Amino acid sequence: MTLTRRAAALAATAALALAAAAPAAAQTKIKMVLNWKYQGPQAWFFVAQDKGYFKAEGLDVEIDQGEGSAAPVTKIASGAYTAGFGDTNALIDFAAKRPNEAPVAVYMIYNTPPFTIAVKKDSPIRGPQDFAGKTIGGPANDGALRLFPAFGKVAKFDPTKVNITNMAPNLREQMLKNGQVDAIFGFINTISFSAKLVGIDPEKDLRFINYGDHGMDLYSNAILFSRAFVRDNPKAVAGFVKAVNRAIGDVLANPEAGMDAVMKREPLLNRAVEKERLLYTIRAEMSHPEIANIGLGDIDVTRLQRGIALIAETNGLPRTPAPDEVFDRRFLPPRAERASKL
To answer: In angstroms, rounded to a whole number, what is the distance separating the alpha carbons of residues 71 and 80?
Structure first.
């Protein structure tokens, strides 16, 4: 071997050694909090994690269980979390009061209002006009509970004449069953399927007074991010949204694989009930007619503006946030890549 060829070989070997010794490119850390304890309808977040979709976007994502749909807003604002899956209406309220600290929504998932108050089938409560003097319970951070004053305004009843009590999430349906409360706040799917776990048949034993049936056509849970993180790491936000959007497509195509990812987190869950919860959520809370035109993940600005105005008026907020303070669509994948029918 000539000196020239030998030098070239040594140089190549040295380059390979340096490449092998170099650390892998640093991944951007994202700490995310969910809306609730582990459930079927969170499958896409776990699929994105397990299939390496987050990693492919240069992200190291940690996912924690939540305490209610309103809680991620304050947890992100406090700096405890980078991202979350939480209620848009709680975000509107926070943005009106503390705009510089408020998170921002970047991908709408629950585009049909899921907020409800459940009562026993034989309850004398037939509608909102019957709430006066009754006791309604729910976890402190429940989205429906937080919206109760607005519901009173729209449905024309006085919410101050209702007794509100809080309980741990796992006690809600049991307390209704035992008669410890007259009604309970929650999301339709959460109550329906959690009721089954305590021996209540939601179709035979419960009635639901839905906020949406009384004119509250509100958006609900979206992917939220810290405003500072959005400013400083736009590529990471776009990558996160891309990964979750891809995982949603996977779950729609193969719900069983989605449930595998959920059960991996919490093997003690009732798989059949959680799969039913997942499918119901897709069907009832993610299938607003508007997505045929705008696709899953996006919002109708006029509709969001109406919701903001309603929350601002009924909650007596100090200001009315603009839609772009609440939702930032810059990070959405192309329209063709987002589901138009679920």
So the answer is: 11
pLDDT in tens, 98-108: 999 999 999 99
Backbone angles phi, psi at 122, to 5 degrees: -95, 10
List strand residue ranges (DSSP E) for the chain, in order: 28-33, 59-64, 83-87, 104-108, 115-120, 135-137, 163-165, 183-187, 206-210, 221-225
Largest CA distance in the chain: 98
Tens of pLDDT, residue by residue over 169-197, are 889 999 999 999 999 999 998 999 999 99
Tokens coding 29: 């850390």
Coil, strand or helix at 203: helix
Closest of 300, 277, 278 to residue 290, by C-alpha: 300
In one letter, which amino acid is 9? A
How far apart CA 341 and CA 287 sit, in angstroms, is: 7
Q: What dihedral do alpha carbons 75, 65, 339, 218 form, nearest 10°?
A: -50
271-285 vs 255-265: helix crossing angle, rounded to 10: 120
What pTM was estimated for this model as a whole? 0.84
- 36, 193 Cβ separation under 8 angstroms: no
Which tokens belong to 221? Answer: 């849970």
Interatomic CA distance for residues 188 and 196, integer angstroms = 13
Give the torsion through C-alpha atoms of 197, 41, 88, 115, to 10 deg.
Answer: -40
Contact 222, 244 (CB under 8 A): no
Residue 272 has pLDDT above 50, yes or no: yes
**Residue 141 in tokens:** 């951070």
Backbone φ and ψ for 38, nearest 5 degrees, come out as -55, 130
